[in-house]
């Protein structure tokens, strides 16, 4: 009897050892989210930019390139007016005083267009219009048009090109976490620095081929700066807000919700105190 019992125990042990355990047969399907569902692997653009960063990186690239192009020519417009057009300094200062007013009016128009066409679409189209007006300004000067025609084209060009800064900045801020908005806003200082550096490059081009050649190079760089905006067209909805999930996730964070509930409780307490009084 003892021999038979020992044989049965050995058979059971052999059977257990041959039976695979659930832990050994389970496959690692990757990380899961809170609901237990498998998370999709994050996509990368150009082999290095994650999908959640593609919108702010594209907007920042477009702004930096546009700043480089503008810095090449913005310092030399007064030289163009005084030396080439033979304008009085008073007229030149009047142009610079009128330009911000037209720019403010154009910003209102671009914001209304962005509600129906999308912010990135309107920004790219306005940049293209500004580039076309820059070329028109050069042609009106070459064709010996009256000086006031050249000045009008310049005012329109400046208002159109600079009317999209608020749109691009809003897209950038909507697609980055709140704690990182200061870092991305620091790009404005980079743009100011790039203006100084590109102004030196513009001076080199002016000495090499003339001021009109510098203006044409500005048009080329600003045209390249619109390519990241065109890339984002497919990621933007009709209402003008990007369709990526980063906008929805960064709009309200877990740290902000207690603040909202506290505010509601405070309001309820105030109303109760007022009723008792």
Describe, in plain words, how this protein is organized in 3D.
- With 277 residues, this protein is mostly helical.
- It has 14 helices and two strands.
- The protein has helices at 2-18, 22-25, 54-74, 77-84, 89-117, 119-142, 147-161, 165-174, 181-185, 187-209, 211-225, 227-231, 245-251, 257-276; strands at 44-45, 49-50.
- It has a two-stranded antiparallel sheet.
- The longest helix has 29 residues, at 89-117.
- The protein is globular.
- The relative contact order is 0.14.
- Mean pLDDT is 76; it is low at 1-7, 15-33 and 238-267.
Task: Spell out the key features of this protein.
disordered N terminus, globular, 277 residues
Question: How would you summarize this macromolecular structure in one to three sentences?
Answer:
73% of the residues lie in helices and 1% in strands.
> What is the molecular shape?
globular
Approximate strand percentage: under 5%
**First-to-last CA distance:** 92 Å
- Structural class by SSE content: mainly alpha
What series of H and E elements makes up the topology? HHEEHHHHHHHHHHHH
Strands of the biggest beta sheet: in what spatial order? 1-2
Q: How many DSSP helices?
A: 14
Q: What value does the average pLDDT take?
A: 76
Count the strands? 2
Low-confidence stretches: 1-7, 15-33, 238-267
Question: How is the main sheet built?
Answer: 2 strands, antiparallel
Query: Helix fraction?
Result: over 70%
Overall radius of gyration: 31 Å
